[in-house]
Design brief:
With about 650 residues, this protein is an alpha/beta fold. Helix content is about 40%, strand content about 10%.
Length: about 650
């Protein structure tokens, strides 16, 4: 009996395909359609004469086919992306070449952050229970986030977590689930990191503050809003403009690199929209004195009568005086003139290499004393009222103590805007007085011929508010491709001045580093400065949100003086808190005639008032400004006018 085969015979192998030729299409050719049967073949069919042929069916649309408009958009986007890439490559190459011959930084860690972070990490490692608790807290936060995300992905209506952070105010950060997870993940992680560093309690407070500050800088830098691929608003702008927003952003980037001579100098305003003396710094007046250190400007009267005692203002030499005269609507100088005060301003020179050896002694004798002398000469008075803003107030306070030691009574009263004399709690600027950083600063000044370039201090101040003054402009200018705003305040903020090496290093070391003025260890020309000997009536203005001269630091300063002191607290910060005209009806201020031991006690007894503090100060100032006299004309005084305000020194660029 024959056996039955258990397997079917194998099918014949197909013929091998011919190899494809180079340069030939590789897609398969469409198969030929079978020919329809001839009509005769179906003629005898019983249904042939009763059925009609079916209507032709439209061909299915190709989902991958592009119309003319889509192709044009794609081509435009591709060209713009290529253009942006080439522009960026060229700008970076030019920047690298311009920086190639410059000396390397003195230290790879100029702020000496590594030892601070080591101290914090060592402290955490010594307390493993704290680390375990922190990790559990982070895991719990992420579990909540993942749970919410999963419910949302399954179609459940889950309200997105609210955020008051300005970086994530675009609705897409909350409405789009992907970007919402990015946002919340970042906020959870950054909050956890900053909180972990802040929880350390057994290291030196200044070391801890340095670690906190630079951890915050790091977490701010890694925000998803700072990257094109993870910023929904920037991606939308890219799509809506066919890549044009990115091209403009890269062009802005290249222009800022060129403006910084190879170092990125982010534009904060449309600088071409403003010109000093034309649409900012326009209060009428005359330069009535000029020497190597300052111009003395007397402003025109705005009333028929003025107070007999003139008012002399000393602005900070690190900035230009026209922060007090940006526009007519917010000009403190114009407002004071309208209140019947004779206003003078000391407009400091933008120092060059010939001033490298100038220190506090020169700025006292050649600056404060000479300005007082010339103001009194111009007004034929024996006394004046003085104002010191920020670092100008530090100098003025030192001058008052020097005057007290020499029985000089030419200053009848003094007002301090956001000025410090006690630097024990001077805020984050204390972090920039480490000897490692001072050595870096000294190297920069030596390379510049003995002056600190204006951009150096601008970078420091910007770092104190990185999200507002760095990253917001990085996103707007470069990722979104927007033009910088025409904002007078930011134009002024970028118009920095240089500083003499000796003056700046003495200020940082003796004031911030040693707090010598508050401790009675500061000397000018060999003469000790004792603030407690000052009996002149004083008015101190602090701002609640000031990050440069914190309100408690100003309060501690006010209590150092020996005479009657009025302390007033304004809303907002270092600039907006001071420059707040009554007509704007913004913010608020607090007053308390007492001066108890602590700021907390002062605040507990303070009364809140809506709007500007200017009216409160003007009432205080009137009581110390003498009788009314016919208005003074700057052109007819003993000092002959040299040129119209705002003068020449304020126009010198760094």
């Amino acid at each position: 009996m024959a056996k039955r085969p258990t397997k079917a015979p194998p099918a014949p192998l197909p013929a091998a395909a011919a190899p494809r030729k180079s340069g030939r299409p590789t897609s398969a050719k469409p198969r030929a359609k079978k020919a329809a049967p001839p009509p005769e073949a179906a003629a005898g069919s019983p249904t042939a004469q009763t059925q009609t042929p079916p209507p032709p069916q439209p061909e299915a649309a190709d989902p991958f086919a592009f119309g003319a408009d889509q192709r044009q958009l794609l081509e435009t986007l591709s060209l713009n992306l290529a253009k942006a890439a080439m522009t960026a490559q060229s700008a970076i190459a030019e920047a690298a070449l311009s920086q190639a011959d410059r000396p390397a930084a003195l230290s790879p860690d100029p702020f000496n952050v590594a030892p601070a972070m080591t101290s914090v990490m060592t402290s955490l490692a010594a307390r493993p229970e704290k680390l375990f608790q922190a990790q559990a807290d982070l895991f719990g936060r992420y579990m909540d986030l993942w749970s919410t995300t999963a419910r949302r992905a399954m179609g459940e209506e889950v309200a997105p977590a609210p955020s008051t952070d300005k970086r994530f105010r675009d609705p897409a950060w909350s409405e789009n689930p992907v970007f919402d997870v990015m946002r919340q993940s970042y906020l959870v992680t950054s909050d956890w990191m900053n909180g972990l560093v802040a929880s350390v309690d057994d290291v030196d407070p200044r070391v801890k503050r340095k670690a906190e500050f630079f951890t915050k800088l790091l977490t701010d830098a890694f925000s998803p809003s700072n990257f094109l691929a993870s910023n929904p608003a920037a991606l939308k702008a890219l799509a809506d403009t066919g890549g044009e927003s990115l091209v403009k952003g890269v062009q802005n980037f290249a222009a800022d690199l060129e403006r910084g001579n190879g170092k990125l100098k982010i534009s904060q305003a449309d600088y071409g929209q403003f010109k000093v003396g034309e649409n900012v710094a326009t209060a009428p007046g005359q330069v009535v004195w000029r020497d190597e250190l300052f111009e003395l400007i007397q402003f025109d009267a705005a009333t028929d009568a003025q107070h007999a005692v003139p008012l002399l203002i000393f602005p900070p030499w690190i900035n230009k005086f026209y922060i007090m005269d940006l526009q007519p609507a917010n000009s403190l100088i114009r407002w004071l003139s309208a209140q019947g005060f004779t206003v003078f301003v000391c407009s400091w020179v933008n120092p060059d290499q010939d001033k490298a050896g100038f220190g506090f002694e020169e700025y006292l004798h050649k600056g404060v004393y000479r300005a007082v002398e010339k103001t009194l000469e111009q007004t034929s008075q024996k006394q004046l009222n003085a104002v010191g803003y920020c670092i100008g107030g530090t100098l003025l306070g030192s001058a008052l103590a020097h005057m007290a030691a020499n029985k000089d009574t030419r200053v009848a009263s003094a007002t301090f805007f956001a000025a410090q004399h006690d630097f024990a709690e001077a805020g984050d600027l204390l972090l920039f007085t480490d000897e490692h950083w001072l050595a870096e600063i000294e190297q920069q000044m030596d390379a510049a011929g003995g002056v600190l370039p204006g951009a150096a201090m601008a970078d420091t101040f910007n770092a104190l508010r990185a999200n507002d003054l760095i990253w917001s402009f990085f996103v707007s200018n470069y990722l979104m491709g927007k033009a910088p705003p025409a904002f007078d305040l930011l134009f002024w903020n970028a118009d920095q001045t240089r500083m003499p090496k000796r003056l700046h290093l003495d200020y940082l070391r003796q004031m911030y580093g040693q707090n010598a003025l508050a401790q009675g260890q500061f000397e000018i020309g060999g003469q000790p400065i004792d603030l407690a000997t000052v009996r002149t009536p004083l008015y101190f203005l602090a701002s609640r949100e000031d990050h440069i001269a914190p309100m408690n630091s100003v309060y501690r300063s006010a209590r150092l003086f020996g005479g009657p002191v009025t302390y007033t607290l304004a809303g907002s910060g270092h600039i907006a808190g001071v420059i707040n005209p009554p007509a704007a009806n913004k913010y608020q201020h607090w007053t308390n005639p007492a001066l108890p031991e602590t700021l907390a006690e002062w605040q507990a007894g303070a009364q809140q008032h809506p709007g500007s503090w200017w009216t409160h100060w003007a009432a205080w100032l009137r009581e110390r400004s003498g009788d009314q006299i016919p208005a003074r004309d700057p052109k007819t005084g003993p000092l002959k006018p040299l040129e119209p305000a705002p003068g020449a020194y304020v126009k010198v660029k760094s």
